[in-house]
Amino acid sequence: MPNIQVRLMGSYSIVPTPCTPESKKAQSLLAHAILNADRLLDRDAVATSLWGECSPEMRRGYLRKALHQVNKALPGWLESHGEHLLLQKDHAEVDVWMLQDLCKKNIQDSNYLQVKDFLMSLQGGLLSGWEEEWCWFERERHHHLWIGLLEKALDCAVQMRHLEDALQFGTRILHLEPAHEPTHQTLIHVHLMRGDRAGAMKQYQRCRQALQEWDLEPAPQTTGLFREARGETTAPRDVLSRLTDLYQHMLKLQEDTQQQLRQIERLIQP
Question: Which PANTHER family match (predicted)?
Answer without folding.
Answer: TRANSCRIPTIONAL REGULATOR REDD-RELATED
